[in-house]
Design goal:
- By secondary structure, the chain is an all-alpha fold.
- It contains five helices and no strands.
Amino acid sequence: MQREMDVAKRAKVIEWLKTEVVDHVSRLFKALWEGSTTRVMDSLASLIVSSYILGRRLGVSYRDMDDSILEKLKKHKQEGHQLEDWYQDISTLEEHMRKR
């Protein structure tokens, strides 16, 4: 019975985190519409935090998430992503993450 309760609790937490991610995206869009830099940063930070925690609840360690992000950045650079070509955003983020 205890194991079933634990599984149900974990499923409920995952569903709640999924709604948090959607809520943070919504708040980000509203902040962009309003032009509030403070609210944009808060929304982006909340979205990133919720994404990391959701990943952890799904069995992905924070280190694995970081490694996956770095791999994604590397792939974008190799494929000539427009943001890399235009602004070097991919390289800048990759450098930032490697220095942490």
